[in-house]
Amino acid sequence: MNPTDRNAAGGESGLAPPESMIGRISLVLDCFTEGQPTVTLSEICERTGLPKSTASRITSELVDYSYLERHGAALSLGIRVFELGSQAARPRSLKVLALPRMAGLRRATGHTVHLAVLEETTVVYIEILPSSSSPRLPSRVGGRLPAFATGVGKALLAYSSSSVVDQVIARGLWKVGPNTITDVTALLRNLKEIRAAGVATEEQESGSGISCVAAPILGALDRPIAAISVSGWSDRLDVAGSIPVVQGVAEALSADVRRRPQLVAEQ
User: Fold this and answer.
1) Fold of the domain spanning 6-85
2) Which strands form 112-119's sheet, in the order they lie side by side?
3) How far is it, in rounded angstroms, from Cα 57 to Cα 81?
4) How confident is the model over 86-95, as a mean pLDDT?
5) Is the confidence at residue 199, as pLDDT, over 90?
6) Could you give the dihedral angle defined by the CA atoms of residues 97, 100, 102 and 103, in that order, rounded to the nearest 10 degrees?
7) Which residue of 49, 93, 120, 227 is 20 to 30 Å from 102, comparing CA positions?
């Protein structure tokens, strides 16, 4: 199991699956990843913690409505999921706005650039511009990682309300990478430092050998709209040299967002 996906809310994480049907459907859909686009019913039960009868009923109905497709004993995402994804206006608008500056950031640093938003306790990646010099990263477009274990996530949490941070802490802090912060006091101290500096750094918190520099994209009243980052091999990414570059791009995007009040209203 990949503990960084939202399906870590159930199954092997030790937390009970949500009571609501929407929550359980969400757990099932989150079992499908870029690395494993097909899964079996048994794997869904193992990852979500759902009883086999419940998982079977949910997956059968999702197949009936084309949200899932059957391939023998395996299941994959159906056409309806992709139709809905293509209609996601907010990420598309934000991505179109950010792409030119993301491309410039990749040229300036030579590393992979991420654009992500915060959703509950996870970050969702809405665009990634990969670099051939960067390692294979755990992130993917549309994928999720725990906010506390990523540079973009910590940049967003540092500017979020205390209730949002409390929700993250309540879900638990577990090891994602070798240096993931799993102590509540240490995380709160780090978020305070990020808020003061306006930039977050990550050293092997989301994965082994990976470093990251991230900064928030802020709307009115410093409301966190998204975050942008550069990621690369820990021994190749110049963290100190990347900080002003990433901050400059984030500030420029913040100004862009503030000139687009309709975009901010969609957040």
Assistant:
1) Arc Repressor Mutant, subunit A (1.10.10)
2) 144-146, 122-129, 112-119, 224-233, 210-218, 200-203
3) 18
4) 67
5) yes
6) 160
7) 120
